[in-house]
Amino acid sequence: MTINYFAFGSNLSSPRLLQRIPAASVHCVATLRQHRLCWHKNGRDRSGKCDIAFTGAIEDIVYGVVYRMTHDERLVLDSYETADFGYARKEVVVTAQHGENIEVFTYYALDINQRQQPYHWYKEHVLRGAIEHDFPPHYIEHIRSTPSMEDRDKERHHRELSIYLVD
């Protein structure tokens, strides 16, 4: 049995998610209303990670990708997402581009710091995913304009972005 996962941050990038969950498949692009994309989740690496913050405002919208995976694969993803420590899972209903409402699981931040910024490489994963899945230009520009910072761990920076290198 497959389950639906709504990715909105670095897992928007198919190479990023498929590196973690190789058998997952892209189902569709979808939106979550009354939420906005934030970068305020405290990462273990002392940088900001994405979160979807509930606002209640109908004009707020988060774009994401629905991936299909098995329950066992979700448990693997939980370990990457530090479920029940950094993030917690929640069930939400998103709207696919073609109008269908889809029940999905996603993650929300448990540890928030409003002054946190993502590393350049993390923002690059999110940006590449938004471009890959043809998100609206204004949303891509919002991601592109997000302040980010250099990761002093050059090896991690290179390792994170190496999935995009073409042989």
Kindly describe this structure.
The protein has five helices and seven strands; from the N terminus they run E-H-E-E-E-E-H-E-E-H-H-H. With 167 residues, it is of the alpha+beta class. The longest helix is centred in the C-terminal third of the chain and has 13 residues, at 120-132. The strands form two sheets. It has a five-stranded antiparallel sheet with strand order 1-5-2-6-7. Strands 3-4 form a two-stranded antiparallel ribbon. Helix 3 runs antiparallel to helix 4 and helix 3 (120-132) packs parallel to helix 5. The model has no long low-confidence stretch (mean pLDDT 94). The protein is globular, with a radius of gyration of 15 Å. The N and C termini lie far apart (35 Å). Helix content is 28%, strand content 35%. The protein has a single domain (2-164), classed as Gamma-glutamyl cyclotransferase-like (Hypothetical upf0131 protein ytfp), CATH 3.10.490. A hairpin with a 5-residue loop joins strand 3 and strand 4.
Short synopsis of the structure:
The protein is α+β, with helices and mostly antiparallel strands and 167 residues long.
Provide tags for this entry.
5-stranded antiparallel β-sheet; globular; 167 residues; alpha+beta; Hypothetical upf0131 protein ytfp
